[in-house]
TrEMBL record:
Family: Belongs to the cytochrome P450 family.
Keyword annotations from UniProtKB, A to Z: Heme, Iron, Membrane, Metal-binding, Monooxygenase, Oxidoreductase, Transmembrane, Transmembrane helix
Name of the protein in its database record: Cytochrome P450
A GO MF term: monooxygenase activity
Principal subcellular localisation of the protein: membrane
Taxonomic placement: Eukaryota, Fungi, Dikarya, Basidiomycota, Agaricomycotina
Binding site for heme: 506
Involved pathway(s): Secondary metabolite biosynthesis; terpenoid biosynthesis
Domain of life: Eukaryota
Annotated compartments: Membrane
Length: 565
C-alpha cells in the first residue's frame, strides 16, 4: 500500500477525515475486524428522537452491549487487580489517574506478574498490561501490526494534530523517512554549539536569581524555557521571542491543569467511546489549549520560510519539511499537505522541548535528594578542561546519571497499541493465570488493546535487582551492575525502555540525550541544588509533570553558586 492510497483515504489512520473536513471514526469492526457497534450520526438521531432521549437510549444500549462483551472476553484469564481497586463504571482507570506517576502499574506487577489485565472504563474490553521485555519488544518491532490504539491516537490528535506520532502504515513510513536525516548522529552533533549557547543563556539568567547563599528557584520554567530555545534554534532556526515563550508556557499550563481535573480524566474516555461527543459545545471536548498557539506559530514559521531557498538549505526539521514539497517534483500526492506540515512543526515544537524539560526536572530533583551523587558528578565534569561534544559524550558518570534518570523517570507513563490481527506473543518470563496455570506465551485476537508502562520494564526487580527502584548511577559503571543487553528492555539507547523501540522509536532520542547531558554539565559546573520543604510528586498530565505542594508544572529547589575552581 502506498502513501498515496493512505492520503486518498483507502486506508487511513484510525481517525479519518472525510471530504467535507469532518472527522469520522470507523468502528473497530470496520478497521480491525472485531465486533463493535456502529453509532448513528447526530443528524439521524435528531430526526427520530429528542436529543436527550436518544442519548439515553444510545448510552444504555451501548453499556449493556459492552457489559455482555466484557463478561465474555477475559483474555487468557490473566490476573487482574482486586475488586476493591476496580470501579464498576471506571474500571481500573480512575485508580491509575489518581495515583502518582506510574507507581500503581509497578505495584500491580509485583502482585499480579509482569503481564496482567485491567478493566477499562465504560465496559470497554479489558486491556492487557505488558511489563515483560520479550512481549514489549514483539509488539514494538511489529508496529504496523500493533498500531496505536484509537483512544491513544485521539489524545495525540487533540494535542498535536495529524503529525508523525499520529500517522500509521505507509503514511508513517513516509514521514519517518523524510524526517530521519534531521536526527542522525552527525546531524545531532552539528547542533552542539547551538545547544551550548542556549544553555549558557539559561545559566546566566539563573546566576541573576541566586548567589553564594541558596535562593529558592522554581526550576521547571527555567528548564522548559531553555529546552524551548533549543528546539527553536536547532529545529527551526528560530529564536523564540519572550511573548511566544509566554504564550506556549501558559497554554501548556492550562493543558496540564485541565488534564488533572475529573473532566480532563473523563474526556478522552468519553471521546474514545462516543467520538461524536466532540461536536458538543463543551470546552473539555475541544482540542488542547496548546494546539491553537503552536499551530499559529507554525503557520508563521512556514510562511516566513516557504520558498526561502537561501535560508532553507540545512538538515533541520523546518528545512526538511518545507523542502519536501519542492523535492516531490510537483507530485502533489507525494507531498505532505499543508495541514501535515503545520501539525508536524507544531508537534516538534512541543515534543521537542516538554519531554526533555521533564526529564531534566526529574534528574535535578534526584541530584538534590542525593548530594553525594551530585558532588561526584560535579567532580567528574570539573576534570575536563573544556566542555565540548567529545567530552560530553565520553564522560562516564554523566552518562550513568542520565541513564539512571531516564530509567526511573520515563517522561510519559505508558503507550497503547491495538492488535490488527490474531497473533502469539512470546513472553520472557512465564506467568500464572487466574486458574493457577502457567502461561508462557499469549495467544491474542485482533482488536486486543495493550498498554505498556515504561516504568514496569525499567524497574522489574527480576532484571534490575532488589534495588531496582533506587537512583544508583554506579550500576551502569560497576562490572555486573546491570545484566547483559539481552536481559534488558530492548530499545535504541542503553537498555532503558523510555524511548520506545522498533519503527516508532522516539526519533529525537539522540538530541534529547545530548541536551540533557549538556544542561546537567553546565548546571553542575556553577550551581548546587538542594531540596526545599515542598513535596514534589509527578502526575500524569498527560506527560508526567512535577507538582510542588499541588502546584502544577513547578519544581522549587534551593540553588546556590558553587565557588569556581
Ligand atoms: C527525554 C526526552 C524524550 C523522551 C523520554 C521521549 C520519549 C518518546 C517515546 C516513549 C515515544 C514513543 C511514543 C509512543 O509510541 O507512544 C516518542 C516518540 C516520538 N518522539 Fe520522543 N521523547 C523525548 C524527546 C523527544 C525530542 C527531543 C523529540 C524531537 C525533537 C521527540 C520527538 C518524537 C517523535 C516525533 C515521536 C514519534 C515517533 C514516531 O511515531 O515515529 N522526542 N518519544
Amino acid at each position: 500500500m502506498t502513501r498515496n492510497e493512505f492520503k486518498l483515504g483507502r486506508v487511513q489512520s484510525p481517525l479519518d477525515e472525510n471530504e467535507s473536513g469532518t472527522v469520522t471514526v470507523p468502528s473497530l469492526s470496520e478497521r480491525f475486524g472485531s465486533t463493535s457497534i456502529s453509532l448513528p450520526s447526530l443528524s439521524m438521531i435528531n430526526n427520530s428522537y429528542s436529543f436527550p432521549f436518544s442519548v439515553f437510549i444510545l448510552g444504555t444500549s451501548y453499556f449493556f452491549w459492552r457489559y455482555i462483551q466484557h463478561k465474555r472476553s477475559a483474555p487468557h484469564k490473566l490476573l487482574m487487580p482486586t475488586s476493591k481497586q476496580t470501579s464498576w463504571i471506571w474500571g481500573n482507570e480512575l485508580k491509575i489517574f489518581q495515583r502518582e506517576a506510574s507507581e500503581i502499574y509497578v505495584e500491580w506487577a509485583a502482585s499480579l506478574g509482569l503481564v496482567y489485565r485491567i478493566k477499562a472504563a465504560l465496559f470497554q474490553s479489558d486491556i492487557i498490561i505488558v511489563g515483560d521485555n520479550s512481549a514489549a519488544q514483539h509488539i514494538f518491532q511489529n508496529s504496523y501490526t500493533y498500531v496505536k490504539a484509537p483512544a491513544f491516537l485521539r489524545l495525540v490528535e487533540r494535542l498535536a494534530g495529524k503529525c508523525l506520532a499520529w500517522a500509521e502504515g505507509e503514511d508513517h513510513k513516509y514521514q519517518r523517512r523524510l524526517l530521519a536525516p534531521a536526527f542522525t548522529s552527525g546531524a545531532v552533533e552539528a547542533m552542539t554549539d547551538d545547544i551550548f549557547s542556549c544553555v549558557e543563556k539559561m545559566s546566566q539568567n539563573l546566576r541573576t536569581l541566586t548567589g553564594p547563599d541558596a535562593n529558592v528557584v522554581d526550576m521547571a520554567p527555567v528548564i522548559s524555557t531553555c529546552a524551548l530555545d533549543i528546539i527553536g534554534r536547532v529545529g527551526f532556526g528560530h529564536d523564540f521571542e519572550s511573548t511566544e515563550v509566554k504564550a506556549i508556557r501558559s497554554a501548556w499550563h492550562q493543558h496540564v491543569v485541565m488534564s488533572r481535573t475529573f473532566a480532563g480524566f473523563m474526556a478522552p474516555i468519553l471521546i474514545s467511546v462516543f467520538p461524536w461527543i466532540t461536536k458538543l459545545p463543551l470546552p473539555v471536548f475541544r482540542d488542547s489549549a496548546v494546539r491553537p498557539i503552536t499551530y499559529k506559530l507554525a503557520g508563521r514559521l512556514l510562511s516566513e520560510n516557504s520558498g526561502n531557498t537561501n535560508v532553507l538549505h540545512g538538515n533541520d526539521i523546518l528545512s526538511i519539511l518545507v523542502n519536501s514539497r519542492s523535492d516531490s517534483k510537483g507530485d502533489l500526492e507525494a507531498q505532505l499537505t499543508t495541514t501535515e506540515l503545520l501539525d508536524n512543526i507544531a508537534f516538534f515544537m512541543m515534543a521537542g522541548h516538554e519531554t526533555t524539560a521533564v526529564a531534566v526536572d526529574s534528574l535535578l530533583l534526584e541530584l538534590a535528594q542525593n548530594p553525594t551523587i551530585q558532588r561526584k558528578l560535579r567532580h567528574e565534569i570539573r576534570t575536563v578542561a573544556s566542555l565540548d561534544y567529545h567530552n560530553i559524550v565520553t564522560l562516564e558518570y554523566l552518562d550513568a546519571v542520565t541513564k539512571e534518570g531516564l530509567r526511573l523517570h520515563p517522561v510519559t507513563a505508558a503507550t497503547e497499541r491495538i492488535a490488527l490481527q490474531d497473533d502469539v506473543i512470546p513472553l520472557k518470563q512465564a506467568i500464572l493465570n487466574e486458574n493457577g496455570k502457567t502461561v508462557s506465551s499469549l495467544v491474542i485476537k485482533a482488536g486486543q488493546v495493550f498498554r505498556i508502562p515504561w516504568t514496569v520494564l525499567n524497574v522489574n526487580e527480576q532484571v534490575w535487582g532488589s534495588n531496582a527502584s533506587q537512583f544508583i548511577p554506579e550500576r551502569w559503571i560497576q562490572p555486573g551492575g546491570v545484566p547483559s543487553a539481552d536481559k534488558l528492555p530492548h530499545g535504541p539507547w542503553g537498555g532503558v525502555s523510555s524511548f520506545c523501540d522498533g519503527p516508532r522509536t522516539c526519533i529525537g532520542y539522540r538530541l534529547a540525550v545530548l541536551e540533557i547531558k549538556i544542561i546537567l554539565a553546565v548546571l553542575m559546573l556553577s550551581f548546587e541544588f538542594e531540596c526545599t520543604e515542598a513535596k514534589i510528586v509527578q502526575y500524569l498530565a498527560p506527560t508526567l509533570q512535577p507538582f510542588a505542594d499541588g502546584k502544577p508544572v513547578s519544581m522549587p529547589l534551593k540553588v546556590s553558586l558553587v565557588p569556581d575552581l
